[in-house]
Write a structure and sequence with these properties.
By secondary structure, the chain is an all-alpha fold. The protein has helices spanning about 1-15, 25-45, 50-60, 70-85, 90-100, 105-110, 115-170. α3 (about 50-60) packs across α4 (about 70-85) and α4 runs antiparallel to α5 (about 90-100). The longest helix is centred in the last third of the chain and has 59 residues, at about 115-170.
C-alpha cells in the first residue's frame, strides 16, 4: 500500500499538471502569491505605500497567476500614478498595458480600460505641453531678439534724422 501511494506521489510530481514551470507546485505558488497580495493590500490600508509598491512589484515579477497577478498589476498601476506626481505616468501606463496584454479577460483589466485611456491621454497632454513650452521659450527668445533689433533700428533712424537735419543746416546759406 505504501509503495502504491509513493508511486502516485512520484507520478503526480513528474507530470506537468501539478507543477509550475520552475518545478514548484502550482497550489503552493498560488497560496504564496495570495499571501503576498494580501500583505500588499494591508500595507496600502496602513498607508505604507512604498512597502506595498515593493511587494506588488516583486509579486508581478513572479510567475503569473490568474486572479492574483492581474489584481497586483492593477493595484501597482494605481500606486505608480500617485508616485508619478507631476512626472509622466509612463510606468503606470506600462503596468496597465501589461495587465491588458497578459490578462485581457480579467475583471481588473476590464475595470482599468478607462483608466488606461486616461493615463494615455494624460501622457499625451504632458508631451504636448512640453513641446508647447519649448516652442514658447523659442518664440520668446526670438521676440526679444526682434525687440532689440527694432530698438537698434529706431536709434539708427533717430541718428539719420539728426544727421539729415545737420546736413540741411549746413547747406542753407
Amino acid at each position: 500500500m505504501k509503495k502504491l501511494a509513493l508511486a502516485a506521489i512520484v507520478a503526480l510530481m513528474t507530470t506537468g499538471c501539478a507543477t509550475s514551470q520552475h518545478g514548484g507546485f502550482v497550489f503552493i505558488d498560488h497560496f504564496s502569491q495570495q499571501r503576498k497580495l494580501a500583505a500588499a493590500v494591508s500595507q496600502i490600508e496602513k498607508g505604507k505605500v512604498g512597502a506595498a509598491t515593493d511587494t506588488l512589484t516583486a509579486l508581478c515579477a513572479e510567475n503569473g497567476v490568474d486572479g492574483i497577478t492581474d489584481e497586483a498589476l492593477f493595484r501597482l498601476s494605481l500606486l505608480q500614478l500617485k508616485a508619478a506626481g507631476d512626472k509622466d505616468y509612463l510606468q503606470s501606463q506600462q503596468t496597465l498595458e501589461r495587465l491588458h496584454k497578459e490578462y485581457p479577460k480579467s475583471p481588473w483589466a476590464i475595470q482599468s480600460a478607462q483608466l488606461l485611456d486616461l493615463v494615455n491621454a494624460a501622457n499625451e497632454q504632458r508631451h504636448q505641453n512640453r513641446n508647447l513650452r519649448a516652442n514658447n521659450q523659442s518664440l520668446t527668445k526670438e521676440n526679444q531678439s526682434l525687440i532689440k533689433e527694432n530698438k537698434e533700428l529706431r536709434q539708427n533712424m533717430e541718428q539719420l534724422k539728426h544727421l539729415d537735419l545737420k546736413l540741411e543746416q549746413k547747406t542753407r546759406p
